[in-house]
Design goal:
Layout lengths: L14 H11 L6 E2 L16 H11 L15 H12 L4 H4 L3 E7 H16 L10 E5 L3 H9 L5 E5 L1 E2 L4 E2 L1 H9 L6 E5 L15 H10 L3 E6 L9 H4 L1 H8 L4 E6 L1 H4 L6 E7 L3 H16 L8 H11 L1 H31 L8 H4 L4 E3 L4 H11 L1 E2 L5 E3 L8 H14 L2
Parallel strand pairs: 1-12, 3-4, 3-7, 7-8, 8-9
Antiparallel strand pairs: 2-10, 5-6, 9-10, 11-13
Helix pairs in contact: 2-13, 2-14, 3-13, 5-6, 5-12, 7-8, 13-14, 14-17, 16-17
């Protein structure tokens, strides 16, 4: 009897995870992994934040804790502190009781729960035809999340100017101007993935003005608060500005990077609405969605984040830990640019330091990327995106030499 799974096609591997697997199999001593989106120390090792170690011990020693289910929406102290982190201590929206939140399985889970809710309830029932605008280029999961949630009309807005290696602001604004009213727009709060290029503080108000006039709904993805610049407030300024302008919005938050809790899958979906009643009804429907998705979220990571954010001493230590990570990334950017300029590598390289966060869109073309991979054992995405955390003081010269060689030899 033939297998019931006989007609299942083999799926294309997720690119970044395939690169990681290939890197691990590679026996060349020169190999460098610039692909996966995770922080690494200057010794190329994962870093467990000192404050996280301290809080984990605190949890282990607390005999009052047990393994009972959390509520469907998650740990209340975590949800409120996470929303406060992104919206600010003095947020009028919080003071007016028009903010709510749902704990999620990472930032991806927050995006999915938000997308599922919007497909069901945004501006009327069953909104599969509502246009969803996603930046071009963007994180690959954005398209998949909204497609799998049932949206049929996914569109892109211009974002990256490849020639100038900078933000295509006018193209971005033009696409927003021409978006149908009430379209959903996915925005990166900071450290845009994959380009590392963000609108400036003077450009965000122009984006908000168009979106407000066109009745467009902002869905922020905040995966790098504090990790991008080392400043929690700076990395949240876009979300806070939109709230100050009266927008209702969603903000998906991830604590993978800024707490180093990658495998704990700790996320939060912050909801900002017009009033308390709207928040209550929205969360009641999110409970229904979560109940049939993961039913209840896990507690350990949420407790680590909650305890840290709500203890002034631990919070100060965490901010220092986050700045340590951000500063290392900024230093690698500065050194890579310096070494490329010192070698006279053709092209302009200011974008390396103009960009921010974990990722850099180098401007390398697919042929040059293939050369680096096959000849130099340097693993990076075909788009030319690199993870700056993969650079160390020990491999910088090799990487710079290899990029110089690729750019000068390969068209």
């Amino acid at each position: 009897m033939a297998s019931v799974f006989g007609n299942v096609p083999l799926a294309t591997p997720v690119a970044v995870f395939k690169l990681v697997a290939d890197f691990q199999k590679d026996e060349d001593p020169r190999k460098v992994n610039l692909s996966a989106g995770a922080y690494r120390t200057d010794e190329s090792q994962p870093w467990v934040l000192p404050v996280v170690k301290k809080v984990k011990q605190k949890i282990a020693n607390d005999s009052s804790l047990n393994h009972e289910y959390l509520t469907i929406l998650g740990l209340p102290a975590f949800r409120s502190s996470a929303s406060k982190l992104v919206l600010g201590d003095d947020s009028p929206a919080i003071k007016e009781n028009r903010v709510g939140a749902a704990q999620s399985l990472g930032g991806t889970g927050a995006l999915r729960i938000g997308a599922d809710f919007l497909r069901r309830w945004y501006n009327g029932n069953n909104n599969t035809a509502t246009p969803v605008y996603i930046s071009k280029p963007s994180w690959e999961n954005h398209n998949g999340v909204f497609t799998d949630a049932g949206f049929k009309d996914l569109r892109t807005y211009r974002y990256w100017n490849a020639e100038k290696r900078s933000l295509d602001l006018e193209g971005f604004l033009d696409d927003l101007e021409n978006a149908p009213e009430f379209s959903i727009v996915v925005l990166h709060a900071c450290a845009h993935n994959p380009t590392g290029t963000d609108p400036t503080p003077s450009q965000w108000p122009r984006i908000a003005e168009v979106m407000k006039r066109r009745y467009l709904f902002p869905f922020f993805d905040s995966a790098y608060q504090g990790f991008a610049s080392g400043d929690l407030d700076r990395d949240a300024q876009a979300v806070r500005y939109f709230v100050s302008q009266g927008f209702e919005l969603f903000c998906a938050q991830s604590f993978s990077k800024n707490f180093g809790l990658y495998n704990e899958r700790i996320g939060n979906l912050t909801v900002v609405a017009k009033d308390t009643d709207n928040v209550a009804r929205t969360l009641s429907q999110m409970e229904k969605i979560i109940r049939t998705t993961w039913s209840n979220p896990p507690s350990t990571g949420a407790r680590i984040v909650s305890i840290t954010l709500n203890d002034p001493e631990l919070f100060a230590e965490w901010k220092d830990n986050v700045k340590t990570m951000a500063d290392r990334v900024l230093e690698m950017r500065a050194q890579l640019k310096e070494k490329l300029l010192a070698r006279g590598t053709p092209g302009t390289w200011n974008h390396i330091t103009d960009q921010i966060g974990m990722f850099s869109y180098t401007g390398l073309n697919p042929n040059q990327v293939e050369y680096l991979l096959k000849q130099k054992h340097i693993y990076l995405m075909s788009s030319g995106r690199i993870n700056m955390c993969g650079l160390t003081t020990k491999n910088l010269n090799y990487v710079a030499d290899s990029i110089h060689e690729a750019v000068t030899k390969i068209a």
